Amino acid sequence: MTDTITAEDAHLWLEEVDGADAMAWVRDRNAETVAALTGEARFAELRDEIRIVLDADDRIPMIAWHGERVYNLWKDAAHPRGLWRRTTLADYRTGEPTWDTVLDLDALAATEDENWVWQGATYLRRGPLAGDHRALLSLSRGGADAAVVREFDLDRKEFVADGFFLPEAKSDVSWISIDEIFVGTDTGPGSMTSSGYPRQVRRWRRGTPFAEAPVVFEGTDDDVSVRASSDPSAAGERAVIRRSLDFFHAERHLLAGGVLTKLDVPDDAGVDLHRDWLLIRVRTDWAVGGTTHPAGSLLIVNLDAFLAGSRDLTTLFTPDPHTSLSYSDWTHDGLILVLLADVQSRLELLTFVDGSWERTVLGGLELGQTDVWNTNADADEQYLLLSSGFTLPPTLRHGVLGGDPPTTLKQGPAYFPTDGITTRQFFATSADGTQVPYFVVGDPSAGPGPTLLSGYGGFEVSRVPSYSAIIGRGWLARGGTYVVANIRGGGEYGPQWHRSALRENRPRAYEDFAAVATDLVERGITTRAQLGIEGGSNGGLLMGVMLTRYPELFGAIVCAVPLLDMRRYHLLLAGASWTAEYGDPDVADDWAYLRLFSPYQNIRQGVPYPPTLITTSTRDDRVHPGHARKMVARLREHGHDVSYYENIEGGHGGAADNAQLAFKWALAFEFLWRTLATA
């Protein structure tokens, strides 16, 4: 099979990420694009305006609880890699909090001569040093998913000498106690899955060689990953080991008292343990205990009773045709449900009183999206909510479950004018008659004009209203209209909305997006020549399909960090983990449908394709940059108008700092304005 693929693919050499020839090709394409798009004053204006809002001092410093304090990672012009800092919640409430800097990432990068990019902190949450005393920091070189893990002392504000340390890898870590951690990492052959994630979980004790750490669980090469998560809410030592069979199916094993017990739940269900409770989110209909619970339901049961054989499950949420559960989040004793009703959020607060769950619908929220930003589940009932909309700047609220309604902690400023700009929701009719919602943001009286349509449509990810200063300044404030399509493959209407575009049904997502594009023109919001589209990752695949299957609908396309070669995607980096979403091209029946929409294999000569900008990152170790490189090479080979830019840093996000992010977006906007404004 490999020889056949190689013979058919003249651009296979571009998959050599750091190969000399491949990088020379990248530098040539970058130079062409930079020369073509950055020479006019508008590009500099776009870049500088975006950079201003990314570095702005008056944006909300987003926080998360850890121990007695709240933590924040702050990036600005003086600290492009970030200041990791903390304060108390009481001080945070004031207009000018006093921040205590825990770690200066820029100073660390300079001292160690490493291009460190923050990937997060795993806090010790059990025992006398729980809270804000110890953490395991993940630091990436250049923004890749692979990271170095180092133990950090939060009291001394320094790395622990001879502390826990893991070299660069796609690792997974979880504290057991101050002296033990669960670890999954790359230790050589047999330790990682074919998807490039840990296959083993080891229990590593401080002061012992990692090679001697016992393996507590091992999956197979064909699994996506294996990971262990300690549960600090339990009275004793307890952990859940998740063996991901594919992207949507997993076995869960409870590890307690040294004994592994497989949880008897559907392998496609979502599972969450908290204190005495087992929470189950059903993704397909589940018949159990004489009752069939429909897909999208949320169920709860006492964990000990469940392990003893009880299937007396309490239903906390049942979906309807318009309403789905987006997610749930625990406080110490309660639960917050975030629902989507025709892609508008609604929050319900649940408390356990006298043997039953009491429910309060949280009112007083703006139209748009409200999310649970953080809870203080280790200690109490406090929670933080973040609300925003397409034209509504973010608001951070603080509340206590069972107490008074939440109050405003911080209000974000408006970074672009919204006079005359409204948000409207419409529904397009897809090829099979399905009604597909989409949001239109702009001046409804302006008439047809430059319009940017965005979509994703995969992995049960929902696209919801949110405030983007980048879109606002770069597009809306300049007279453009912005559209978000809620196509199938996403999670806007629950698991069924996602499943309806899986594998051989994938074209439904593409038909949905094409239907929205057609509907925009029919409503007079834009014209075909003035309609641009953009998407990244799975959304980049969407863009590639639009280019090769529906080129007549669009005036310009921006495609970022994309999957495009569906013949080889499963062989590149994390691609093997996505076969449950797309199918396996090595299976003849799967390739029979994949080949019909795989963009790389469907480029045609003589077909008028719209101008296209494709971007990616050399350091993206999730979606291989070879997808973008090869697509551009083949488009050029067939004489199509395509521009390319590959950021050397940035990982799957495409940028390692605000300067790179502003540059990348300015390129996209300049390309779109040049192409669409003159149409």
UniProtKB/TrEMBL annotation:
Residues 475-676 form the Peptidase S9 prolyl oligopeptidase catalytic domain. The keyword Protease applies. InterPro entries: AB_hydrolase_fold, Pept_S9A_N, Peptidase_S9_cat, Peptidase_S9A, Prolyl_oligopep/macrocyclase. Signal peptide: none annotated. Residues 7-227 form the Peptidase S9A N-terminal domain. Pfam families: Peptidase_S9 (PF00326), Peptidase_S9_N (PF02897). Keywords: Hydrolase, Protease, Serine protease. It comes from the Bacteria. This is Prolyl oligopeptidase family protein. It comes from Dactylosporangium cerinum.
